[in-house]
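Database export, one record per block. Field names are fixed; values are copied verbatim from the stored entry.
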Amino acid sequence: MAALPPQPIGQSQAYLAILDRVSDSAVLERPVLLVGERGTGKELIAKRLHFLSPRWEKVFITVNCAAFTDQRLDEELFGESFLDGRADTNGKFYHADEGTIFLDNIDAVSPRLQEKLMGAVEYGRYEASGEHAEQEVDVRVISASAIDLPGAVARGDFRADLLDRLAFEVLTLPPLRARRDDILPLSDHFGRKIAAELGADRFPGFTAEASEALLAREWPGNVRELKAVIERNTAKAWLADETLSDPIGGGPAGPLRFDPFASPHRLGGTSSETAATPPAPSSEPLEHLPPARESLLPPDPGFQARVLAFERNLILEALQASGNHQGKAAEYLELTYHQFRGLMRKHGLKK
């Protein structure tokens, strides 16, 4: 019996609708095709289909079809027979007998193997590489793809008859941007999990600003990208303060960082988080600030006055470039959020 899968996390209508369809499809023991962008959780749904099915006590085997060459995938799926005295090998279909096999990235299968796969899906019969005798197995096939397979059929890249066999039921998983109600619950789950792994006694949640930033992002990498961002920022906060006393997105670790490559010295250009183009102005701009580079020097200024005036002008320049967003202004100057706030108080720009 395979390990029990984690419970899916989501309360959005789009995700709950998919979970309902998963429950209905699970009991039918027919092929299911999962379609969705990268990082939408296709393997999690495949495992749920298995564990809600009558086969739940049997084996669940995953094969990433994109991870092998054509011949190696043939051997991985169907095994290999030798004529030189070496012991024959059994493939994943053999080991998945009476259970479920999950074929991820099914679009990566070559035309030659697509034809061979049809017999295994339709009739439960196949030949091992180098063998001429058929083997029979009872395997439920769940497959997944991040591309439009009907479009691949139209281009001649995928066999229409195989797609017909795989697509008894097709479940299209919604991207994270279509289930924004799930972003904060998922973030809290990932944050609590890594905080526990790091040995922290608690997880402090997120600042209001961090929560707004999480909700506003489009998440092209979907749940996988969200998990990486939350784990990275929680680990950074823990390194700055092992008690995790401040909410994530504040405290000594500063605001959330989404791009791990962000750096003023980034190879190949500027990062999305340090680009020169200023973002849209904040909905709550700071008022009554003098414009950047306005002359603030007193008559016949001394050295200290010049230093303070230069420092103040840098703060105002950063605020202007970031649309008065203090977190982005801190990044603009390569300061932590708390360092930047301290400078603002020093110059009377923040009470």
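Remark 1: Confidence is low (pLDDT under 50) at residues 274-288, 290-299.
Remark 2: The chain has three domains: 13-174, 179-258, 286-351.
End of record.
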